[in-house]
Amino acid sequence: MNILIIGKSKAALNFSRYLKILKIKSKIIPYRELKKYKDHLTSNKIEKYCAVFILTRDEDIIPTYKRYLKGLKNKRIFHFSGSVYHKCITSIHPIFSFPDKPIRNKDFKNIIFTSENPEKVKKTIPWFKNKIIKINKKDKIYYHSLLTIYFSFPLIIKRIIEKEMKKFNIPRNYLHNLLKKKIENKNSNITGVLARNDKKIISKHLKSLKKTKYRGIYKEILKIWRRYENN
């Protein structure tokens, strides 16, 4: 078996390493160097690969397919995006953020993927043993939006507030460890003024934040929290 990977992203490098452990050969072509490899991307040469993975930025996936792979008879073309859909490219989206350093083989095997067509994945690349959950193509953007909120928004808020809390000489590590314990505790609940629905204190909070950029964050999350509690 031989796999062609287009792109040199963190996902591409981790996937290439994983294939090596499985003793599957792979060739990486960096996205920015595609023009240099134009001869290598002719149909007769690409057909020799048992699968092609376009692991570029989301916005480059479909243009790459249209420009270099559209004439392929072998339709074993995949991508790792959770937001892109194309009928000729099968999505296998890892619910995982790849770090700069390659992850362990064990960790890669534990990644859960989603796909519009898990059956096709299992049929065309049977060596891919990760768990794959089926997702409807019409739900992809909504699903991807929720993952972005879940994995990125808390970190953004955390970094903003930790930076601001330096004014009060509260150690960042102390706050980090408290939050970590709270998150790791599966039975942990929302506490403080939100849990008590202390309207007077909440009103004072909003007043104190009136001239800051944090008021919008507080107000919008409070609004979402109230809707959630009322459902």
Descriptive notes:
- With 231 residues, the chain is α/β, with parallel strands linked by helices.
- The chain folds into 3 domains: 134 residues, NAD(P)-binding Rossmann-like Domain (Rossmann fold, 3-Layer(aba) Sandwich), CATH 3.40.50; 52 residues; 40 residues.
- It has 10 helices and 8 strands.
- The strands form 2 sheets. A 5-stranded parallel β-sheet has the order 2-1-3-4-5, sandwiched between helices. A 3-stranded mixed β-sheet has the order 6-7-8, with no helix packed on it.
- The radius of gyration is 23 Å and the shape is elongated.
- It starts with a strand and ends with a helix.
Count of individual beta strands: 8
CATH topology of the largest domain: Rossmann fold
Low-confidence stretches: none
Q: What radius of gyration results from the CA coordinates?
A: 23 Å
CATH architecture annotation name of the largest domain: 3-Layer(aba) Sandwich
Rounded mean pLDDT score:
91
Q: What's the order of the H and E elements?
A: EHEHEHEEEHEHEHHHHH
Distance between the ends: 52 Å
Indicate how many domains the architecture comprises: 3
CATH class of the largest domain: Alpha Beta
- The largest sheet has its strands arranged as 2-1-3-4-5
DSSP helix fraction: 40-55%
The major beta sheet can be summarized as: 5 strands, parallel
Structural class: alpha/beta
- Tally of DSSP helical segments: 10
CATH-defined superfamily of the largest domain: NAD(P)-binding Rossmann-like Domain
The fraction of residues assigned to DSSP E strands is 5-15%
Can you tell me the overall shape?
A: elongated
